[in-house]
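Today's session is about reading a structure prediction critically. Students often jump straight to the picture, but the first step is always the sequence itself: look for stretches that repeat, for charged clusters, for runs of hydrophobic residues. Only then move on to the predicted structure, which in these notes is written as discrete structure tokens rather than atom positions. Here is the chain we will use throughout the hour.
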Amino acid sequence: MPISIEPTVELNIEKIRSDFPILDQKVYDKTLVYFDNAATTQKPRVVIDRIKQYYEKENSNIHRGVHRLSQIATEAFEKARLNVQQFINAPELYEVVFTKGTTESINMVASSFGDDQLKVGDEVIISALEHHSNIVPWQMICDKMGANLKVIPINDKGELILEEYYKLLNRKTRIVSVSHVSNALGSINQVQEIIKAAHEYQVPVLLDGAQAASHLPIDVQALDCDFYCFSGHKTYAPMGGGVLYGKADLLEKMSPYQGGGEMVNTVTFEKTTYNELPFKFEAGTPNVEAILGLDAAIQYLRGIGLDQIAAYEDELLQYGTSALESINGVRIIGKADHKTSIISFLIGDIHPYDAGTIIDRMGVAVRTGHHCAQPVMDRFRIPGTIRASFAFYNTKSEIDLLIEAIETTKKMFS
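Below is the predicted structure for this chain, in token form.
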């Protein structure tokens, strides 16, 4: 069953769609239907215009510049940090670190926290639902430090088996890192229960919010997570920008992830002292345009309302799920009781790549393959899936076009 959130205001989908220039085009002489939002979302005009404004009127390196352009760019950059703080309800502004995206954020925590906290025989817990970006960094640091990686299994619906998670927690556990929402199946994980159980052992929890931040209201204080990260490009912002939230006491203890400009206080050949938070973790010139674009995207989302977005996307998910289940031979992979707007499916014994290619020729963009979640596919003994992922600019009539494309694909392979 999808999530259930009642909207307080009905969305004006026609107006919203007009905000996204890329949707007003044709592919293969058919109007584009974009159902690859889990890979990256499209960008509203306000984001595109914000980038244009930066390069036309504000372009300058930020921080430490005394000239006017640098001051303007720095002020805008730090205003973006404030808006992110409010977007995720972080307690302190300096707990918001800008990164290149979710992948860099997780690598940062795995490297810096792992170097400082892990030793031989310690344990790190992840889940069987994770994106490779929340598997490989932990494997790397465990190999380096002699620690052990433990995995929470999933059931046939694509849900974490919490009873098995509770058995994994022990005095050797040093950190738990799980996705808030599965990128492959759309499952919304039971993160509050996961965090509560870990904290009983004084174990910090990182949440990979790459698939959650554009679909659900995020409140890191209510969740009480120790780290939270997400990518701008999956949140209607440009590629190359992201966020790591971390509780200040943990960030203070962690060594810098990279060395260079901005992250230092004083440098001599004998010794370097590090900058205060969050700058200790922001070495080098950041992707200013991406962060200013993220700021514009967040303001755009807040103007619409995350509750309204979640409710409408829930409608799309229910409609799409019912429509796909009505097609003979279609098998949905991942039927968690709580999901966001992702449907992974197979069409009979047609290979996902072959099916996706034909669906594309019908003007419908879907993603095929293992979705950087090979262990998920191994769990279900399949090579991959076709994934349709919806955003609030999508419509039920577009889902109808997907259904037509699936029926056409079936006929071609019959």
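Discussion point for the tutorial: The chain has two domains: 13-40+305-409, 48-302.
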